[in-house]
Design brief:
This protein is of the alpha+beta class and about 240 residues long. The chain is built from 3 helices and 13 strands; from the N terminus they run H-H-E-E-E-E-E-E-H-E-E-E-E-E-E-E. The chain has a single domain (about 5-235), classed as Clam (outer membrane lipoprotein receptor (LolB), chain A). It has helices at about 5-35, 35-40, 110-120; strands at about 45-55, 55-65, 70-75, 80-85, 90-95, 100-105, 135-140, 145-155, 160-165, 170-180, 185-195, 200-210, 215-225. A hairpin with a 3-residue loop joins strand 2 (about 55-65) and strand 3. It is globular.
């Protein structure tokens, strides 16, 4: 084989390995920037409280997570709560503002966002063990800040793009491509105002909306509590069943 062919063959077989090593190095630095894998995995439960703002609409927001893979999200207005929850197997919703006080079961597509939120560690932690695949797509900018762009292909077929600050190695944005009933939906979440809680850094400001839209829902986190006592019944369908 000629030297040129040898070089091309080496590039063909070695480049994917180098790419995999590079993406893993960036993910490792991201986890270290967040506080380190040991501290992240030591979190057994979490409760975040704050407010959300969408235009003139404001409400209280509560998210609770319990390992493994349980999440409950509440939007509270005048003492009434819309609840979306996932207990690791079943997703359900209570929508009192729509006149539905009994829980409704969610379809597999409607549960996708909840299942993502239920991963208390985040999708990049042990991504291979979760049957996700990661690729480094080079650099991109978020509002003028240089970022590494990581493409994460989830085991359910959805895709997430992580934009990781090249200086702090914290996420500044995540874009999501989610297949819902045969249609791909594109959304993006911006992260900022990172603060340390028990040695782990969390974003205390988030903006969520459709990709490319300036019309975003803003979340302002006021308090994050780690390893708080949370009953498993908070995440299960309330007694009486669901429709």
């Amino acid at each position: 084989m000629s030297d040129k062919l040898t070089a091309l063959a080496c590039a063909f077989f070695i480049a994917p390995l180098l790419s995999a090593q590079t993406v893993d190095e960036i993910i490792a630095k991201n986890l270290q920037a967040r506080g380190g894998l040991t501290k992240i995995k030591a979190v057994q439960s979490m409760r975040a409280t704050g407010k959300l703002t969408s235009g003139s609409f404001q409400a209280k927001f509560i998210q609770m997570n319990l390992r493994p893979n349980r999440v409950r999200e509440e939007v509270v207005i005048q003492g009434m709560s819309q609840i979306d929850a996932y207990d690791g197997k079943i997703g359900w919703r209570v929508s009192p503002f729509e006149g539905r006080k009994d829980p409704d079961l969610l379809s597999s597509d409607d549960m996708k966002a909840l299942i993502t939120d239920a991963d208390i560690d985040g999708q990049l932690v042990d991504y291979r063990n979760k049957d996700h695949r990661a690729e480094l797509e080079g650099h991109d900018s978020v509002e003028g800040t240089d970022c590494y762009k990581i493409k994460l292909m989830l085991s359910n077929g959805d895709v997430r793009y992580f934009y990781i600050d090249t200086d702090s190695f914290l996420e500044l944005k995540i874009e999501t491509q989610r297949n819902i009933r045969g249609t791909v939906q594109y959304s993006e979440t911006y992260y900022g105002d990172y603060e340390e809680v028990n040695g782990i850094y969390f974003p205390f400001a988030m903006e969520v909306g459709e990709k490319g839209s300036t019309d975003r829902t803003k979340f302002t986190i006021e308090k994050v509590e780690l390893n708080v006592p949370l009953k498993a019944t908070l995440f299960t369908v309330p007694t009486g069943g669901a429709k």
